[in-house]
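User: Structure with guanosine-5'-diphosphate, tokens only please.
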Amino acid sequence: MKIGKSMTKPELSVIVPTYNESKNIETLAIRVFDSLKKYKINAELIVVDDSSPDGTAALADKMSKDYPVRVYVRTHRTGPGAAIMDGIRLAEAPIACVMDGDLSHPPEALPEMYKLIKEDKALLVVGSRHTKGGGTSEWVWYRKFFSWGARLLGRFLTPVIDLTSGYFMFDKKILEGAEINPIGCKVGLELMVKGKHQGKVVEYPIVFVERALGESKMGWRETRRYLQHLIALSLFKLSKISKLK
Ligand SMILES: Nc1nc2c(ncn2[C@@H]2O[C@H](COP(=O)(O)OP(=O)(O)O)[C@@H](O)[C@H]2O)c(=O)[nH]1
Ligand SMILES: [Mg+2]
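Assistant:
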């Protein structure tokens, strides 16, 4: 589906990949624009939907009558990573943010994250569950274990503690001259490792809220892609180190 142009040039593009988020998308849009309006930040919301059967795209499109929402519908479901990359390509603002559509990532953090970039304190801001003030709602032991394992595996790729966070904002300058092609959904990790951020990366504390409505779509496929992604990023890192020698 074609996507229109924004009416006025936004300062911030918020990108949300969606698959069956009809129970969350309206609340998400309202909370995003409410939180940004208080600080007079002119933003657009880009919903990248993989033809969800539950009508997420139609609901998001309805929101576009009242809010600067643009909807891009992909005909093939190739996963959140590819959807996010499409969203980044479509973003019209100089600063872009990626967040989940299930209300796990608090939109109320957007203004502070934005300020860090605007005030030149960061080129990449990661919404972090593992920095002082951040957290998660109570997780079952195996989820904690997998999350810990996923972070441990990526430890030598980046100093960022919450390296698997799906909530991140960046100045689009960090894409210039960088070859960004993530395997799987960890686009944030790809930017941490390959983005031209000159080390200006800040973790901003967020409390991750468990999805209340709808279902999680993450499974073994994304886990496998994550492992492949770690291998690709490790090779990238090693090739950079050997070039320096
Ligand atoms: N466009 C698109 N979005 C997806 C797909 N799978 C998941 N998502 C979205 O990606 C975000 C994170 O997915 P979620 O199921 O909440 O993963 P979890 O938080 O790891 O359980 C949500 O906004 C989902 O709607 C997909 O195949 N295509
Ligand atoms: Mg989720």
